[in-house]
Amino acid sequence: MLSSPSALRTLSKNIFLALLAVLVLAGVSACNKNKDYQDYRSAAELYADAKDSLDKQNWRRAVQEYRTLQTRYPFGRYTEQSMLDLGYAYFKAHQPESALSTLDRFIRTYPAHANVDYAYYLKGLVNYEENLGVLERMMPQRVRDRDQTTARDSFADFKELLRRFPDSRYAADARQRMVFLRNNLAAYEVSVAEYYMRRQAYIAVVNRARYLLENYPGTPQSADALMLLHQAYGELSMGELQEDAWAVLETNYPDHYYVLGKKKKESWASRLWPFD
Description:
This protein has 12 helices and no strands. The protein has helices spanning 5-40, 43-55, 59-72, 79-92, 96-109, 116-138, 149-164, 171-198, 202-215, 222-235, 239-252, 257-272. α5 packs antiparallel against α6, α6 (116-138) packs antiparallel against α7 and α9 packs antiparallel against α10 (222-235). The model has no long low-confidence stretch (mean pLDDT 84).
């Protein structure tokens, strides 16, 4: 009988299964409908939807839609710009490797494109933010302690932009970022050289200091590099090179604390022993 507990349980179970089947079929139908809609969108519609997601800062959605556009319409009037936009969307979605590979592909495929300078600039930004962005904003003094591979890549990207497009609208910002990168790369070399000095690895100190002076001349850290050279050459008993390092340091950085301290010591020594 239907009124029995067993029959009621069976009826409830059947109703539940029927409702579940309806929901599943509705979901599948909605997915297929959405898929069919995407399949029928033109390149112009896909690009408009992707650009709308980009403007709304829905980065992951923008990536998905630009990738769909690139896959379904690999050629055409929207292909070139969509590749640039996809690189930017990857950048903002914190996918630097995908951003760099997309931008490299754009540069290889469209080397004469009117906006190829932006591709170089964006590559520099991707590497810049990957290495420096968060630390620069939160703990600027800690930037130099990180591995500098992406910082060097960023510097090279901006340098290539300035070499190829010195009048680009992005040139001024690239130059400012290069100054920051250059100073931090030099500071990193000083930090490493000081570490080697504490470990009494004097040849390594010399190599790091010379690398800084050769690759980042004129940076604020050049004086510290010369100081480290003077000290390391002294420990290595290389008197002539030690004197050369001192001469350059004293001539170009007479107010450096190391120069002033050494002169002060010499002054006190002359007072204690005034006989020549």
